[in-house]
Specification:
alpha+beta; SH3 type barrels; five-stranded antiparallel β-sheet; disordered C terminus
């Protein structure tokens, strides 16, 4: 028992001696850490101002801020190791082990997502708040990070790996000057084509959100057995309002057709034994 107490006491004395010897180094390290924390705050503000002057999106500025902060912290960490005379031990053993572990856990896909994230941030095919289409999904961009992009779909929030944006076609509806939309309808041959054009274009012109330039047009698209098929082509800029705009156009067309005695219903030919019958 005495042997154990003696060893403990020796350990305490040796530890105390080491601490006393390194008090100056501890004080210097604490001062460096305090200065570093204050410096990081200044750097954050500077990077933010620089991003605003360069008209960088907030997500890109935030990523640059993080990279600068981690770089500063790594440099300070190496400086403190050097103060305590541990830099050779850490550089030769601990840091390679840590770096190898990180690389081991980081898959190729993760590295690919990081590269894709940097490409997205600097090429800026879309920004936070944009309405985009990736593959078959139409989503709103909520956040862009170095690994993934957070988007909002109709059924909730989705996190998409950045590499997916490089592999799929992306349509940014908020960057398109005009988007084409098409509505098909039919009218009997007894009605004048020019009259159909005029009343449909008037109905469309009363709908908010339809562009005047380029303006809407009506085309005779196909000849059915008992009616002419028409195609209304119009342009919008606000893709988010496409549902409301289309509904208003259909309502207006229905109203003007009724007011002018134009029937939207179309007869069809149905095969009957020994002949045909109109329906």
């Amino acid at each position: 028992m005495q042997f154990g107490l003696d060893n403990l006491w020796t350990f305490i004395l040796n530890s105390g001696s080491i601490i006393i010897q390194n008090v100056p180094n501890l004080i210097i390290s604490i001062v460096i850490i305090i200065i570093t924390l204050l410096g990081i705050k200044i750097v954050k503000r500077s990077v933010k101002r620089a991003g605003e002057r360069a008209d960088l999106p907030p997500d890109v500025t935030a990523t640059l801020n993080k990279l600068v902060q981690w770089t500063i912290l790594l440099i300070v960490f190496i400086i403190i190791l050097n103060i305590f005379g541990l830099e050779q031990f850490w550089l030769a053993t601990i840091i390679p082990i840590m770096f190898g572990t990180v690389i081991g856990f980081a898959s190729i896909s993760t590295i690919g997502n990081m590269v894709a994230g940097l490409i997205i941030m600097f090429s800026r095919p879309f920004k936070v708040g944009d309405l985009i289409q990736i593959d078959e999904d139409i989503v709103v961009v909520k956040e862009i990070t170095i690994i993934f992009t957070k988007v909002e779909k109709g059924d909730g929030i989705v996190y998409i790996p950045n590499a997916e944006f490089l592999k799929n076609k992306i349509t940014n509806y908020d960057q398109k000057p005009a988007m084409i939309r098409i509505i098909k309808f039919s009218a009997s041959y007894e009605h004048d084509v020019s009259a159909i054009d005029a009343i449909v274009l008037k109905a469309v012109s009363e709908v908010e959100g339809v562009l005047e330039h380029p303006g809407p047009i009506v085309r005779a698209d196909n000849f059915d057995d008992f009616a002419c098929q028409y195609k209304l082509i119009y342009y919008i800029r606000n893709f988010r309002a496409r549902g409301r705009i289309e509904a208003d156009i259909r309502k207006n067309i229905l109203q003007v057709f009724k007011a002018n005695g134009i029937d939207l219903t179309t007869s069809h030919l149905v095969n009957i034994t020994g002949g045909t019958q109109n329906q």
